[in-house]
């Protein structure tokens, strides 16, 4: 089978003009490893596409981060990957994968099962690559994919009212620091010309859960040995998400106070559109800087440069 494919591809390439042929990148041979990697990439792309078509931009970006984290946790095994599944494992993995693809086609709007399809798809890929006794090599990537259902669970369990009230208070604090005449009444952040009301979808719970899950991805991909530093990561991550969202709410209050309330392009861009992702990016950047600082503390010091006059 492999020889037939190689002969067909070689015959096809011979018919292409030499100038064009040189620009075509070499196609990897259809080995079991390459076919498995192609299948894994297709599963990831399909899952992200379903998120993109049925969920908000924030959740889609988070799905991309989770799949990216799974790749990072797996990349050091790509070269030595030699799929050798058990017969029944291959059958079960194939059936699971077909079910995941079929179930994904039915998702049009919010569906809690969507968040479980990624780890199920990851497990099916594992069964198609290794015997059950060796599935431990996929532990970290599967844990990364488990962050998607964990994210959905956090979104359901984190208290909405206290976080909304705290978000309004902090947003008002930033505006008062700037010298603006701001009034905070429960969930409302009011300026003389208008204001905003912090409701559940805007209180930053999604960003807090997202940064917390990003922290877990970092811990899996770039482990920190110190338990104290791990605790700092878990505690700091949601705080960074909360604070960055309060900056967004404060900015929206300024827009509303200057006559650019809901319905205006500027307000909607930072409220529901791509502009809101700017604050997600800032939160991930700040968290990454904190994490790298903690990671650097565990690295050994660099050797001292040789002094003048030292040598053989």
Automatic annotation (TrEMBL):
Gene Ontology cellular-component annotations: plasma membrane
A family per Pfam: Exosortase_EpsH
Localization in the cell: Cell membrane
UniProt-recorded Gene Ontology molecular function terms: peptidase activity
Transmembrane domains' residue ranges: 86-106, 112-129, 141-158, 207-224, 231-256, 276-295
InterPro entries in the cross-refs: Exo/Archaeosortase_dom (IPR026392), Exosortase (IPR019127)
Membrane topology: Multi-pass membrane protein
Highest taxon, organism lineage: Bacteria
Keywords carried by this UniProt record: Cell membrane, Hydrolase, Membrane, Protease, Transmembrane, Transmembrane helix
Name this polypeptide is given: Transmembrane exosortase (Exosortase_EpsH)
Organism field: Cyanobium gracile (strain ATCC 27147 / PCC 6307)
